[in-house]
Design goal:
Layout (H helix, E strand, L loop, with lengths): L2 H4 L5 H4 L4 H11 L13 E6 L11 H14 L3 E6 L16 H14 L4 E6 L4 H12 L3 E5 L6 E3 L2 E3 L3 H11 L5 H11 L11 H11 L15 H20 L9 H14 L4 H13 L5 H8 L16 H7 L1 H9 L15 H5 L24 E3 L8 E3 L10 E10 L1 H7 L12 E5 L19 H5 L6 E4 L11 E3 L19 E5 L4 E4 L3 H10 L10 H9 L26
Parallel strand pairs: 1-2, 1-3, 3-4, 9-10, 10-11, 11-12
Antiparallel strand pairs: 5-6, 7-8, 8-12, 9-13, 13-14
Helix pairs in contact: 4-10, 5-6, 6-12, 9-11, 11-12, 11-13
Length: 575
C-alpha cells in the first residue's frame, strides 16, 4: 500500500470507527444517499457556501458549488457543502461591516467542529471574502478560495456603465438636474444584467484579485465573469486541487507569509483596488499571525504605478480586464516589483504560475513604462486629526485637491449630514472641506460606507464634482473622489476628529502624508478637556459584543479575542 493511502485524515476521527459513534456519524450522513464507499478514508472536503438570495452577488453559488463538488469527486474526495451567514453589501443594514467578524466566527467554528479535512471558500460580495478567509486562517486547514466572478458590463444608452461608480455619478446628475429621474430608473436593469458581483474594481473584485495575488486561489480567479463557462471550470479545477492539497497537507500557514501580503499591497495599487482592502488585509494578517501595519501600505504601495485602466480609477470594467489578460498579465507587467517566490495553492510559486502570461489589450492593462498613473497606491495620512492614521486613494481623487487647505463644515453623524447637506443656507463653497464624524466602528456602529459624502446640491448646480471629504467611515470600493477615510482613532472613542469645529482650517497634503487641524496646541488641549466621547449605545446581543471588542481600523477592525490562529483541534465526541 502506498504512503498516501496509509495517511489518516482528520475526518477519520468521525467516520473510521465501528463503534456507536462511528455508526451514528455514518448512518445519519447516509440519509442523504451517501454510499458507504465515501467513508473509506478519502479526504472530506467542506464547501463553505455564502449563497443567499439576499446577497445578489452570490445568488449563483448553488450552481458554482456543484462544479466544485464534481472536481472533488473526480479527484477521489468526499464533498460536503455547508452554509454560513451571508453578507449582502447592497441590502444588509446598518452595514455589512458590522457582521464581518460574526461570519468569521461562524466559519471558524463550523470548520473546526465538523469532519472536514480541507475547505473550499465560495466568496463573492465584499465582506464574504475576508470573513471566510479570516475564519479559515484561524483553523489552518488546507484551503482554497473560489470567487463568484463579476457581472457582465452594464449597458445603458449605448455606453458601458459600472456598478456603484456609475450609480454615484448618475445620482449626482439627478440631484444637479442634469439627468431625468425616468432615465435613472431605466438604468437599474441596465447596470445589473447578469449574475455576479460589481464589475468595477470595487471591494468584491479587489478581494477576488488579492486572493489570487496572495496565492489562495487558482490563476484567473480574480476576473473571470460569473456567467463565463470558464468560471465553472475554475470551480471544478479548484475542487480537484483541494483534494491534492489535503494529501500534501498544504495549509494556509504554509502559503501565507510576509511576501504574500507585500504582493497584495503592490497588486492592490496596480489594479486601483479598494480602500477596504486595507482593513481586510490587516485582519487576515492578524489571524495568520503575520505582522502587518498601515506603515507597510505606505512602504510597499505608495510608489506603485496604476496599470489597470478600470473604474473607478479609469475607464474600463472587469469583463474587459479578463479579456485583456487578467491578473496574470498584471503580475507579468510588474516584473520585479512583485515577489515571484511567494507560494500558492497550486504548489508552485506565484512567479511560476504567471510566467509568460500574455497581455491582449494594452489599453486596459498598461505596460509598466506607460501606466495610467505613475504613483497610485493607497496613501497613509497622519497628523493631529489622525494620530493613528487615515487613508486616501489618490488614483480616484482629483489631483488638484491632493494638496489643499480649506474651512471645515462639520456633520455629527449621518442623520445630521442628510438633514443639512442640501440646505440652501449652508455656508459652503468649492474650497470647503466636508467633515463627518461618529460614523466609525463604535460610533455608528459598524463603520458604514458613507465616507463618499454626496456634495451639497448648490455645489452640484454650480458644476462642482469633487470636494475634500474627511470621516472616520469607509467608502465603497466603487466610489471615487478626494476622500479621506478610516480616521483613527475614531471620534466616538475620543479621537481628535471629535475636536474639529465648523470654520476650522484643515490642511491636506497627500504627498507629505499630512492631515492637520490648524489650531494652536493650547486650543487643541482645551478642546480635548471638554469633549466627551459619543460611542453608540449598546442594545445587547451581537451589537454589544461588537462594541466591547472591536479593534480600530488601523488594527484591522477584528475582535481582540479573535486575533491569532487557534487550529482545528476539537474535543472528542460527547455523545
Amino acid at each position: 500500500m502506498s504512503e498516501e493511502k496509509k495517511r489518516t485524515f482528520r475526518s477519520a476521527a468521525w467516520f473510521a470507527s465501528n463503534d456507536r459513534n462511528g455508526f451514528m456519524h455514518r448512518s445519519w450522513m447516509k440519509n442523504q444517499g451517501t454510499p458507504h464507499r465515501m467513508f473509506d478514508g478519502r479526504p472530506v472536503i467542506g464547501i463553505c457556501n455564502t449563497w443567499s438570495e439576499l446577497t445578489p452577488c452570490n445568488g449563483h453559488f448553488r450552481q458554482l458549488a456543484e462544479h466544485v463538488k464534481r472536481g472533488v469527486i473526480e479527484a477521489g474526495g468526499f464533498p460536503v457543502e455547508f452554509p454560513v451567514m451571508s453578507l449582502g453589501e447592497t441590502l444588509l443594514r446598518p452595514t455589512a461591516m458590522l457582521f464581518r467578524n460574526l461570519v468569521s466566527m461562524d466559519v471558524e467554528e463550523s470548520i473546526r467542529a465538523n469532519p472536514v479535512d480541507g475547505v473550499v471558500l465560495l466568496c463573492g460580495c465584499d465582506k464574504t471574502t475576508p470573513a471566510l478567509v479570516m475564519g479559515a486562517a484561524s483553523c489552518d486547514l488546507p484551503t482554497i478560495v473560489v470567487s463568484g466572478g463579476p457581472m457582465l458590463n452594464g449597458k445603458f444608452q449605448g455606453q458601458d456603465i459600472g456598478s456603484g461608480t456609475s450609480l454615484f455619478a448618475m445620482s449626482e446628475n439627478v440631484r444637479a438636474g442634469n439627468l431625468a429621474p425616468e432615465a435613472f430608473l431605466e438604468a437599474e436593469a441596465c447596470m445589473s444584467r447578469s449574475a455576479g458581483h460589481c464589475m468595477t474594481m470595487g471591494t468584491a473584485s479587489t478581494m477576488a484579485c488579492l486572493m489570487e495575488a496572495m496565492g489562495l486561489s487558482l490563476p484567473h480567479n480574480g476576473a473571470i465573469p460569473a456567467v463565463d463557462a470558464r468560471r465553472n471550470l475554475l470551480a471544478n479545477d479548484s475542487g480537484r486541487r483541494i483534494v491534492e492539497m489535503v494529501k500534501e497537507d498544504l495549509t494556509i500557514s504554509k502559503l501565507l507569509d510576509r511576501r504574500s501580503f507585500e504582493n497584495a499591497i503592490r497588486i492592490n495599487a496596480a489594479i486601483g483596488g479598494s480602500t477596504n482592502a486595507i482593513i481586510h488585509l490587516l485582519a487576515i494578517a492578524g489571524r495568520a499571525g503575520i505582522s502587518l501595519s498601515l506603515d507597510d501600505f505606505e512602504k510597499f504601495g505608495s510608489d506603485m504605478p496604476l496599470l489597470v485602466d478600470l473604474l473607478p480609477s479609469g475607464r474600463f470594467l472587469m469583463e474587459d480586464f479578463y479579456y485583456a489578460g487578467g491578473l496574470p498579465a498584471v503580475w507579468q507587467a510588474l516584473g520585479d516589483l512583485v515577489d515571484g517566490s511567494a507560494m500558492s495553492v497550486t504548489g508552485r510559486s506565484m512567479g511560476d504560475n504567471n510566467a509568460g502570461a500574455p497581455l491582449w489589450n494594452p489599453d486596459v492593462i498598461r505596460p509598466l513604462d506607460t501606466p495610467v498613473k505613475s504613483r497610485a497606491g493607497i496613501a497613509v495620512l497622519r497628523g493631529n486629526i489622525a494620530p493613528d492614521g487615515a487613508i486616501i486613494k489618490p488614483s480616484a481623487a482629483t489631483p488638484a485637491l491632493l494638496r489643499h487647505r480649506g474651512r471645515a463644515i462639520v456633520f455629527d453623524g449621518l442623520a445630521d449630514f442628510r438633514a443639512r447637506i442640501d440646505d440652501p443656507d449652508l455656508a459652503v463653497d468649492e474650497t470647503s472641506i466636508l467633515v463627518m464624524r461618529g460614523v466609525g466602528l463604535k460610533g455608528y456602529p459598524g463603520m458604514p460606507e458613507v465616507g463618499n459624502m454626496p456634495l451639497p446640491r448648490k455645489m452640484l448646480e454650480r458644476g462642482v464634482r469633487d470636494m475634500v471629504r474627511i470621516s472616520d467611515a469607509r467608502m465603497s470600493g466603487t466610489a471615487y473622489g478626494t476622500i479621506v477615510l478610516h480616521v483613527a482613532p475614531e471620534a466616538a472613542i475620543g479621537g481628535p476628529l471629535a475636536l474639529v469645529r465648523t470654520g476650522d482650517v484643515i490642511e491636506l497634503d497627500v504627498e507629505a502624508g499630512r492631515l492637520h487641524l490648524d489650531i494652536s496646541e493650547q486650543e487643541f488641549s482645551e478642546r480635548q478637556a471638554v469633549t466627551q466621547a459619543k460611542q453608540a449605545e449598546a442594545r445587547g446581543g451581537y451589537e454589544q459584543l461588537f462594541l466591547q471588542h472591536v479593534l480600530q481600523p488601523d488594527k484591522g477592525a477584528d475582535f481582540d479575542f479573535l486575533v491569532g490562529r487557534r487550529g482545528a483541534v476539537v474535543a472528542d465526541n460527547a455523545h
